[in-house]
Structure formats: C-alpha cells, structure tokens
Amino acid sequence: MDVVLDSAADVADSPTLQASFWQAWIAGLPHMDRWRSLTVAGGSFPASLNPSAGYRPHGDVHRREWRGYTRLAASAPPRQPWFGDYGCASPQTEMMDPRLFDPNAKIKYTIDDQWRIIVGTQVKRNGRDQYRDLCRHLISDRPVVFMGRTYSAGDEYIEDCANNVASTGGSSTWPTVATNHHLTKVVRDLANLSGASTVP
Length: 200
Prior knowledge:
Distance between the termini: 33 Å
Strand order of the largest sheet: 1-2-4
Helix content: 25-40%
Shape: globular
Strand content: 15-25%
Largest sheet: 3 strands, parallel
C-alpha cells in the first residue's frame, strides 16, 4: 500500500513548522516498514492572483511545501518520504467556464524556493501577443532566474516565443509550459537532494 500525507493548501509558511507537522504524521503511522511508498505533499500556489498589480512586472511566491520538505529531509526522519506537490496550480482552484471571463496573460516559472509569476492584461481584450513581452521580461530580468532554453522543453518554448519563433499559443499552452519546466526542476532538485545527481 502507498501512503500519501497531503497537506493540500494548508501548508505552513515556516519550513520548520511544516516539517514538524509532517514529522508528527509520519511518527503516528503504524507498521512503517509495511508501506510500499510514503509521500508528503502540499500545494501553496495561490488560488487567486488578485490583485494582479502585485505581479507586474512580476511577483515571487514561496514554495512552502518544497521548503518544508527540504527541512524535513535534513532532519533524517525514520523513513525518508517522497515529495509531491500540485505544480503551478492551487488545490483550491475553482472550475470556471472560460466563456464567461477574460483571464490575464500570465507566466508561472518555478525557481529554487519560489515561483516567479509574471502577469499581463486580459487576453480577449488585449490579445495574446503580450506573451512575447512577458517571456522577454522573464529572460532578461536581473538577477537572472531563467534557466536557459536547454533546461526543459518549456524553457525552449519561452525563449522561442520571446524571439518570435514560436507562437503565443492557446489557453492550454502556458499551463503546459509551466508544468514541463516545474517537473524538470523538481526532479532535478530531488536528485540533488538525495545525492543521486549534481546537475543543477
């Protein structure tokens, strides 16, 4: 049997506090050696990016579940759990009919302990070409957070969009780009944390 200890959106801002919650949950599990896998998870990405002015030209949001996990891993628990999250989405995201609202253009980009969030204006009213400017901001902003086109397929698309090589995509394009980069970042960071890799 596989056990997932999921904090969902209820993740403490303090890494030490979140690690202590997970430590208590793990300590309370019976028959620790019988579980095929053990995973701790959480999702602290904001359910809403309002007011959007807080993300122009960009805003950074702590990845609280990742920070808590690294603190937990450093504490040498009786059994080292795997890590899970909700990517660049909130567990509390509501289902909405896209025909009834005009979302802002946005790019979500996972960095070490944070998400870099770059928000534009309403897409239906102002068009999708604004994605090129958002990509250019991500690439050129200092200090540099963009990890280069070879880091992931998502990063390649961001650079190509900025350079007018790729299209500005559709409604599913940018969640896909964000998820591709995020998964690459998390897998590499987990490998580094466990000592299985030193690739940044």
